[in-house]
Amino acid sequence: MKAALCTAYGPPEVLQVRDVPDPVAGNKDVVIRIRSAAVVASDVYMRSGVPTASLAMRVMTRVFIGFTRPRNPILGAVLAGEIESVGKHVTQYRVGDRVWAFTTMRFRCYAQRIRLPATVKLLGPSPSNFTHEEAATIPYGGLLAWSFLKRAKIQRGENVVIYGASGSIGSIAMQIAKHLGASVTAVCSTANLDLVRSLGADAVLDYTRQDVPADARYDVVFDAVGRKKTSPMKVALSKALTPTGRVVSVDDALPRPSRADLNFLRELAEAGTLRPVIDRVYPLEDVAEAHRYVELGHKKGNVLLTLA
C-alpha cells in the first residue's frame, strides 16, 4: 500500500510517499481502508520537530515521538473509511462498516490502510449522512471543541465568543455552542466573515478591522487558536466579560475525549446540526503541499487527503 512517511524532522519535503507492507488484522484488530484523512496543525507541529517550543519541551516531546525523526513515521491522526478485515475475536464491526477515528499518538492515518485494536475508544461508526471526506472533518476539531466547551459550562441564552471561528476547531465550536442555545459572536478575518455567518453566527467581528463594541459583555470567550496567536481584539475580549464571565483556551489543558464524545458528534452530524467545512483536498501524493498550506495558518475549516 501507499503511505506518506516522515523521514526526518523538517520542512514539508521530509514527507515522502512510498510503498509499505499492508497491515494484517490480529485476533482483536480491525484493518480499515482509509478513504480520507485530515491534515491538522498538530501534524505540522510534529513533522517540524516542534521548533517553536522551548528546549525542555522539544526534548520531552521527542522522548515520546522520537529524537531524530518520528518513531512512527506515518503521521496523521484522523481518518474516515471502511472496515476491510476483522480479527476472529472481533464482534462489534463487520467488513464494509463505515467508520471514523481519531488515533491520537498512534498516528498512521496518512496511509491507504491502518490496523487498530477494535476496542480503541475513539473509533466508531461514522455519520450515515456524510461522505468519507465530510466525516474526516469532524473528529479532530469536534473532539477538541467539545472538550473545552464542556469546561466552559455554557448555559442556554449566554453570550459566547468564538475567537478563530473559521478554523477546524472554531467552526465546529461555533455550531456546538449554537446547539447548546448560546448566542454566538464569531471572530475571524475579513475573508472568512461570510463563512461564519453561513454557519449560524449571530454576530461577527473582524479582528483585522474592528474593535470590540464598548458596551459588549460576554459570558464565555473561547480561544480556538491558542495563546501563540494574539491580537488587540483578543486582549480586549478577555476584559469584556460579565461578572461570571470566563475565558477558555485550547491551551488550557490536555483534552481527554471519550467514545461518548465521538458518539455525541455523530448524533449532531446525523441530525444536521454540524456542517462540515472543507477548504482544500489533496491526493496523498501531494501531502507535502497540503502541509505547506496548513502551515500558513489561514485555512478555512479543514484540509484533507484522499487515499485512492
Give a quick summary of the entry.
This protein is of the alpha/beta class. It is built from nine helices and 14 strands.
Topology of this structure?
Blueprint: E1 2-6, E2 15-19, E3 29-39, H1 41-48, H2 55-65, E4 78-86, E5 98-102, E6 113-117, E7 123-125, H3 132-135, H4 139-152, E8 159-163, H5 170-179, E9 183-188, H6 193-198, E10 203-206, E11 218-223, H7 232-237, E12 241-249, H8 259-270, E13 278-283, H9 287-295, E14 302-306
Parallel strand pairs: 8-9, 8-11, 9-10, 11-12, 13-14
Antiparallel strand pairs: 1-2, 3-4, 3-6, 3-14, 4-5, 5-7
Helix pairs in contact: 4-5
Describe the protein's architecture and organization.
The protein has 308 residues and is an alpha/beta fold. The chain has 9 helices and 14 strands. Helix 7 (232-237) links the parallel strand 11 and strand 12 (241-249). The mean pLDDT is 95.
